Amino acid sequence: MVLCMGIIQFALSLYCCGPDILGYISSLTRDNPYIPLPPGGSTLDATERTILLKDLVIKLGDVNPGVK
């Protein structure tokens, strides 16, 4: 079953045409001077920092939409 899921994951990754933006948002905020970080700074793991930053509004956009 796990092998089948791995093969399906690989096959679907070949057809993916968008960037992987579903990672932890905390990696974008780590040690960033423009974002008010919660107490703990970079010593927090990704899950804890994500929970503490749950009310942070982010905006994702394409910086160069004409280039493919």
Structural features, described:
The structure is a single chain. It contains three helices and no strands. The protein is mostly helical. It has a domain at 19-56. The N and C termini lie far apart (36 Å). The model has no long low-confidence stretch (mean pLDDT 75).
Radius of gyration: 17 Å
Q: What oligomeric state do these chains adopt? A: single chain
Helix fraction, binned, reads 25-40%
Low-confidence stretches: none
What kind of sheet is the major sheet?
A: none
What is the string of SSEs from the N terminus onward? HHH
Report the principal-axis shape.
Answer: flat
Count the E strands. Answer: 0
Q: What average pLDDT do the residues reach?
A: 75
Total helical segments = 3
CA(first)-CA(last) distance: 36 Å
Structural class: mainly alpha
Which band does the percent of strand residues land in? under 5%
Question: How is this fold's topology laid out?
Answer:
Blueprint: H1 2-14, H2 26-29, H3 46-52
What is this entry, summarized?
The protein has 68 residues and is mainly α.
Quickly list its features.
3 helices, flat
